[in-house]
Fold this protein.
Amino acid sequence: MRRLRWFRYASPQTFYPLAGRLVPVFAVLAAVSGAIGLYLGFFVAPTDAQQGEAYRIIFVHVPASWMSMVLSRVMAFWAGVGLVFNTRLSSMMAHALAPTGAMFTFLSLWTGALWGRPTWGTYWVWDARLTSELILFFLYIGYMALAAAIDDPRRGDRASAVLALVGVVNVPIIYFSVQWWNTLHQGASVSLTRAPTMAATMLAGMLVMTFAFWMYSIAVALSRVRAILLEREAHTDWARAVARAEAA
Amino acid sequence: MNRPSVAAAFAGLVHRDLLLAARRKSEPLFALGFFVIVASLFPLGLGPEPELLRRIAPGVLWVAALLAAMLSLGRLFAADYEDGTLEAIAVAPVPLAVAVLAKVAAHWLVTGVPLVLASPVLALQYGLPAEAIAVLAASLLLGTPVLSFVGAIGAALTLGVRGGGVLLALLVLPLYVPPLVFGAGAVDARLAGLPAGANLSLLGACLALAAGLAPVAAAAAVRIALE
């Protein structure tokens, strides 16, 4: 029986063209599902009884928040794999995911502020979720800063992987501590979890948008990892050949 | 060659670091000076109303202690890293995590304990009542080791890195949120007439978790820095 070749695509040389073929697929999926999701969100979903049209930012806000949290886990997973198995590609994948994760965290905070203004009357409250999202943003920034500050790429990979794992252990602790802190100071005057069940079309729009954000994240991470690969492997023959072919 | 026992190696490292700190005299006190000065600047900026000062005291004193602890982290491994001692420690037949634990313990004795001891005096400046002062000192006693443990990871990760000091702050400060929340929360609760036990227990839980995991993570980071 032939052994499954799990690690075939762990080699930069074989992964680079594979990623190049996959990027357009995911990009098209992201564009199509994004268009469907936005159409559902803006035209099909009913107007909210309490919040009017302002609630429609939910179709960007909630998927962005989900992605910000999921990507931090995915990033820590790849960083951990890179640290344990010493696979360079995994560490590069973690690096490639970090800016996208930080972008979604920022997007979540930004859209949250824009949503908060008409509904709560303020751009920012020190709510547990908002605060822990802000701290998640700081953790992403710290990860990218550490990776950028270390000149030796392998050392940078491993050091930032340790930081990513420490961060992923800390995120739930920070979340619960902030929740505790908030409940001590003030009652839940503003709750993000609204009791009324949402219409099926709203949920559908949100799920389609989440799918679009997933596809976008994969497409962007793959094209970023291709750039990192070329940069790191610039001394090898295959990378030079690729660079020459793409320049021509 | 007989292998040194882990306990003897631990005690030896703590003794060495304490001796080094004692010979340097002034340097360990920088963090304490920073703590006192920052805590004294807030009333100058906010005005001397006793009501206001009493209300902000837990947060201000905790943030000042946290920043002081953070600023002292730079010296935790840096001197040993520069003169090669850290490499000798890493190849010694003792788990590196134990050596890190010893260095963190010595660092806390030199920089953390003075903060705990000075906090009641500063709390008096802010007009805190006696029972709240006791809670503040207790929360710092439990919390400053957490700051040293978590900070050790950041200090090891930024060894020999460009712009290490500012980067260290960027990495470590978000991780300091839980001890800050629980520590300042304990004093706040006492001021509001509530029992502070829950907050102090959670702070103790943070300490237990940090003491178990941080030395391992910091040891891994030291190894990466030494490669």
